[in-house]
Amino acid sequence: VRLVESGGGLVQPGGSLRLSCAASGFSFSSYVMKWYRQAPGKERELVASIAGTSSSTYYADSVKGRLTISRDNAKNTVYLQMASLKPEDTAVYYCYAARGSQQYWGQGTQVTVSS
User: Which positions ≥6 away from 42 have C-beta within 8 Å?
Assistant: First the structure.
C-alpha cells in the first residue's frame, strides 16, 4: 500500500497550489479519502474529506470556500486544490485513506505560505 503526495511548495499569500495523492495497493474507490495538515507545534487536523463513490465532501470551517477536494477513481488519485492561501495554511499536508478499521497515511508534503 502506498500513498504518495506531491505538489507542495512555497507560495505567496493569496496564491494557489494543487496537491495530489497517488494511491496504490488497495481498492481506492471503496475508501474514504481525507487530507489532514499539521503545523509546527500544533496537532494534526482534518482539512477535507471525500467519500468513495458518492463524492460527498466535508471541509473544516477554516478552509471552506478556499480549498476543494476531488478524486479520480480511474487514476487512483485524490486532489486538494488550494486557493487564496494564507500564512496560517502553512503545514505539512497528509493524505489519508480509510475503510472500516483499515487506515493508511502518506508521508506528507510541505506547504509554506509566505511572502
Answer: 91
